[in-house]
Specification:
- This protein is mainly beta.
- It is about 15% helix and about 40% strand.
- The protein is built from 5 helices and 22 strands.
- The chain has a 4-stranded antiparallel sheet. It has a 4-stranded antiparallel sheet with strand order 2-3-4-5, with no helix packed on it.
- A hairpin with a 2-residue loop joins β21 and β22.
- The longest helix has 12 residues.
- The N and C termini lie far apart (about 50 Å).
Length: about 300
């Protein structure tokens, strides 16, 4: 039973977000912050829309390619934005993939299993697969090993300490980030220096224990309110999709999320922007590639040109 909970937490975190929003209707519970976001520094221009053959649980991008994992088909698909062509990248023996990372040369794909500690390295050019160590990646176990602080709530009733239920990981060219769903404390891991630090997002939402006992198992508390739902990074900035209502949103009546941008070097807030709505679907995943921001809306992926003003 615990194993099933971990799989659901890790793979279907975005599904819980969708259910949370849909069940409660257009006005889900939201954290309110006294901050006002600044929208004058970034500008979006829609480029195109791409339909994938199912709901995209995980999405990554590199160069002119977008990679999406569709759980219902147990496959990773590759879309070439230049040729406007889609093919299957991987449909191997792994029954469940919960995380995908790509090597800098885009020749190797690292596929994480349901525990996110066992990693398969896959090379599409040769279709070769190898089991590799997790030492080059920040993982649940690594986060707890390197970073001992109260901002990570270690829920001991989960086999992995609760991290699968509490947040997600994002990589850039130098740092790896652990970003909580339910509070503002972001963990930043410098792999080269083996150094872990943390910083707060602008909303300053405090940590909460979102797990409650339910018979012999634990479930998410109905009082748990999502703060950060997904994120992406490039060499310069971290982009976090936040559901926190800022004062500017309250005054204007806007109820959607915002993407808050942070400079990776000094972790300072650099501004925000809003993603356009699409068929009343929530944004599940983000990716940044060059000057292009890519967003998953269920089975549709939208590409935007992101300009710094």
């Amino acid at each position: 039973m615990k194993r099933n909970l971990i799989i659901l937490s890790a793979l279907f975190c975005s599904a819980f977000i969708i259910m949370y929003i849909l069940v409660r209707g257009a006005e889900p519970d939201r954290i309110v912050s006294g901050v006002s976001r600044q929208y004058s520094h970034f500008q979006l221009e829609t480029l195109d829309t791409i339909a994938f053959p199912g709901r995209v649980s995980i999405m990554r991008a590199a160069g002119d390619h977008i990679y999406g994992y569709v759980y219902s088909q147990k496959a990773v698909f590759n879309y070439d934005t230049r040729l406007h062509r889609m093919d299957t990248l991987y449909n191997g023996p792994m029954p469940i993939i919960t995380r995908i990372e790509i090597s800098p040369d885009a020749q190797t794909f690292y596929l994480f299993d349901d525990t996110q500690e066992h990693i398969t390295a896959y090379q599409p050019a040769t279709r070769k697969t190898d089991s590799v160590s997790s030492e080059n990646f920040l993982t649940r176990e690594g986060t707890q090993l390197h970073y001992r602080d109260s901002t990570i709530a270690e829920f001991t009733h989960f086999d992995d300490g609760g991290l699968s239920a509490d947040g997600f990981f994002v990589n850039d060219s130098r740092y790896q980030f652990y970003i909580p769903f339910y509070h503002s404390g972001v963990v930043r891991y410098d792999l080269a220096q083996n150094r872990v630090t943390s910083f707060q997002t602008i909303d300053q939402s405090p940590p909460v224990n979102i797990a409650v006992p339910q018979g012999n198992i634990y479930a998410r508390s109905p009082k748990a309110v999502i703060v950060n739902s997904t994120a992406t990074a490039d060499a310069d900035r971290l982009y976090v999709l936040s559901y926190v209502l800022s004062q500017d949103a309250i005054k204007s009546g806007y109820r959607g999320p915002a993407v808050d941008v942070y400079n990776i070097g000094d972790t300072h807030y650099a501004g925000s922007f809003r993603l356009p709505g699409y068929q009343n679907k929530p944004v599940l995943q983000l990716a940044k590639c060059g000057d292009t921001l890519i967003a998953v809306y269920e089975r549709n992926i939208l590409r935007f040109k992101l300009k710094q003003v």
